[in-house]
Amino acid sequence: MALLGLLVLLALAGPVGGTWDTCRGTCGLRPLDFDHSSVSANYDHSDGDYAALGSSDVTSLDLDSPGVPSGAWPGIVSVQATLENGTWHMCSGALISPQWVLTVAQCFFRSGDTSAWKVLIGATDLAQPGPEAQRRHIGKVLKHQDYSNDLPGNNIALVELDQPVECSDYIQLACVPDSSLAVSELKTCYVAGWRATPENGQCPPGAGDKLGTTGTRPGRPRAEAKAGDIGGPLVCKDNTGDYFWLVGLTSWGKGCAGDKRPGVFTATQHFHNWIQTQMGTVPPKTEPPPPKPPTPTIEIQPPAPELEPEPEPEPEPEPEPQPQPVPIPVPIPEPEQIPEPEEEEEEEEEEEPEPTPPPPKFITVSFPKAILLRFFRNLQEFVEFLRDKLD
């Protein structure tokens, strides 16, 4: 539990402001620091991705000295090219991840094949790097997609090393601030780099292959940056903690810059998201794809069972017109008059009644039912008519 508590405290003690910690869990430290309490600076980042720092009243820590102590700036690196006439320091940079270096794109203008280039980390004297220094080959260079050598903006690049670097007291990661850090309120800033001497040799003594550091006092709008220092880190001490922020990279400087030749820096805070995206720390922001149109679907019905064709009904033969039956008049017998009974005569012989003539024979004819009904109905009406007449 005690070890867990110590790890939590170490994590909370790291710098805040949007950095990534991959080497010993922190960044921005200077384990072999020297006294910098008497130097302060004024940083102006009002120009977007560029910033100016400096003054005529510059406090130099190394112009009259052989250099700064080893490990004083453990995040700085030297990008070197091996040519036919030797190995040359091309530009400076800052180690921001065990396998990534942040520098300026101008360093690789017309660089050609960089597979033979190397990066030296953890050295202060390029002529005598020392056993604490490490060398790595360049895996690839990612220049900002909007950088142009003819234009001043977007002068920034990432260098991926072929192998990760092991951190030590002489090699530490630099902290890149995000937008949450108020960079303009930082009070103590330094510029570090290996200074190249112009051809006329007019720069102050101490310029050459030794690491140099320059600090500035408050209230001065600009700072010096020597030619050949491109990519050199501009770091500012946090106002509340004992760690440093990588706020700028030396973009360009002409000769031995002074009062009328300010150094120009690329503001790293402006490119924080670009750096993380290129390193793969966060996925790039992309617009959501438009919704796909619905895929038309076709419902395939199972084949209906084959039905045997129903036999067509044979047409019913139309009945041949039959002649309408002609009603046959039926003779109606006239009613016989019943004679009045005569007085009985003396034993007259009774006359035998005449035999009733047999009824006339009728011919049986088949008639439709409706016709027969109509006929008998008419017959009934006729009989009733006669009865009425007789009465």
TrEMBL record:
Keywords: Disulfide bond, Hydrolase, Protease, Serine protease, Signal. One of its GO terms (molecular function) is serine-type endopeptidase activity. Residues 1-18 form the signal peptide. SUPFAM superfamilies: Trypsin-like serine proteases. GO terms for biological process: acrosome reaction; proteolysis. Residues 307-319, 337-354 have a biased composition (Acidic residues). Residues 52-280 form the Peptidase S1 domain. It comes from the Eukaryota. The keyword Ubl conjugation does not apply. Residues 201-227, 279-364 are annotated as: Disordered. InterPro entries: Peptidase_S1_PA (IPR009003), Peptidase_S1_PA_chymotrypsin (IPR043504), Peptidase_S1A (IPR001314), Trypsin_dom (IPR001254). The gene is LOC102034591. This is Acrosin-like.
